[in-house]
Amino acid sequence: MTNRMAGAIVSGVVCGVVLLGAAGVGWGQGAKALYPAMAPIEQYRVASVAEEVALARSAANAAVSGDAEVMVLGSHGYETAAKGKNGFVCLVERSWATNFDDSQFWNPKLRAPHCFNASAARSVMPAYLKRTELVLSGLPKDQVEARMREAVATKVIGVPEQGAMCYMLSKQGYLNDHDGHWRPHLMFFLPSVDAASWGANLDGSQVFAAQGNPEPVTIFMVPVTTWSDGTVEEIK
Asked: Does 136 have pLDDT greater than 60?
């Protein structure tokens, strides 16, 4: 996995996003003509609020996600569908979390369940929520990007808080057309830093990293062995 796949997972934010990059395994390869513009908004929706809540909670094991706040995609942005008690916030990111130059930026199939801890919910997730509001307002992609860069320049969007992290353990996610749900993993968010300082993206390393763009964040991804339902990942 390379930086581009990472960026997709984290929302370029992230979240970004996951909350959601740079360049990565299969993300957007051979798909340049497939997603030239935003699809009708209905194609980005989950069938029902209950199903989106369940999908969002699948980002982490029940001990974490069961008491988390859950947000779902509404008409103008994300809305709270379930109040939480433990400081975590779960939501399902859509394709506009990835880099603005990614060929799957408008891929309506993308569903990326995230469960952010309190630090990430306060300092990382807002960038993805802002992207979503701008996208749903009808702005073209280049104007969404310009607004995001302005938000970073004016420090409306800042660096991650210390201890910001996120669970991505859902078997039900769809991160891109090449890798599907990829692997269960944890994400750690730091202010922009050299990935090599974590040993990330080196030959044989089990730590992967992506740089946010334009968000001032480095996202480190560490694969784990089990999905949120407790089943063991099958390595292919």
From this structure: yes
